[in-house]
Amino acid sequence: MQFDTLGSNANGLVLLVRLEDAALLPRLQRNVFLNNMLKAIQRVMEECVIVNVRSPYPVSLEELRARGLAVREVIGFGKNLLDVATKRTQPYEPVRIGDVAYLPAAEVEIIEYDNGRKKQLWQALQRMFLG
Q: Which domain of life does the UniProt lineage start with (predicted)?
């Protein structure tokens, strides 16, 4: 499985994305919307890792852990990003998959400019992180 990572995740928070160009990862790390989202759940970008799934196929929790990533909470920005979640999840509905909390959402660039989706994401984040 091919994926790129940016950041460290001492607290086990993973942000899954699918970007055409891995060179865009640093821009995503500085993205104001993402940083504000993390601040709202009392996290900072330095505490999480962004994983860019380069393949059209999803990654597995085992593959992420094999790279040495702590995986406790995962937010997937896009479709078909995490193998165990492809058939069992609805957007903005957090689920537990074994010892991992997973929240599927739309792509960052879609949510960023859509207040309705931002509200859905915020409600889901509250259930997952602040409940």
A: Bacteria
CA–CA separation, 10 and 113 (whole Å) = 30
From 82-86, 90-94, 95-99, the region with the lowest mean pLDDT = 82-86
Closest CA to 65 of 85, 82, 88, 78: 82
H or E segment to which residue 10 belongs: none
CB 90 within 8 A of CB 96: no
Contact status, residue 52 vs residue 17, Cβ threshold 8 Å: yes
Length of the chain: 131
Confidence (pTM): 0.95
pLDDT digits (tens, 9 = 90+) for 33-67: 999 999 999 999 999 999 999 999 999 999 999 99
Instruction: Tell me which amino acid residue 27 is.
Output: R
